[in-house]
Design a protein that fits this description.
The protein is an alpha+beta fold. The protein contains seven helices and eleven strands. Helix 3 packs across helix 4.
Amino acid sequence: MKNIKYFPDIKNNELFKSLSENEFLEVINYSRISTYLKKSIIHLQNEPCSSIGIILEGDVVIQRLDENGKVLTIVTLEVGESFGGNLIFSDQGLYPMTVSANSDSTILHVGKETIIDLCQKNKDFLIEFMRSISNKTIIVSNKLNAITMKSIREQIIDSLIQEYKVQQSLHLELPLNRKNWAESLGIPRPSLSRELSKMKADKLIDYAGNWILIIDESILENS
């Protein structure tokens, strides 16, 4: 029998909260719960997508690796969020990016046939499933627009503005190390370090370790 400690989390998930008892049992009986250690691969880039994943514990990172070894972090997903819904019914049906555990994680994998059956039986599930797909499409689109339309400096400033909104301080403690920050922006780490040095020389910021001091407050004018 699958681990029952996760049943309340599954039942209360946005996708499944409208299910009847029989529909909920169908999800449990025809799905699998898997655990993954930190940094382990959940799905490889170009691997077939045959299920959607619901995060029950931990967090998951979705990244794109190009032929030159450059890593682009698209999004980090947390407990209750899902992945694969925007791929499972596509013509190619392949993961265009790698999905890996950002920390020790537990995932509920719900197969394609179960999704089809629930969409046919439950209108609320269908609506929530479509909403989830739409939201993921917007996330990817916004990420690609940010990469293709903005300079490295503009991307850095955008990140600082987001942290300023959260911390409400000119002295910011960054939640990511330099390597992960570069990956989240989709740029090489040396390029990030080089641009930070230029911004320091231009007296826009100062920094030490994971701390950045915003000297020129005009860079926050779009916040």
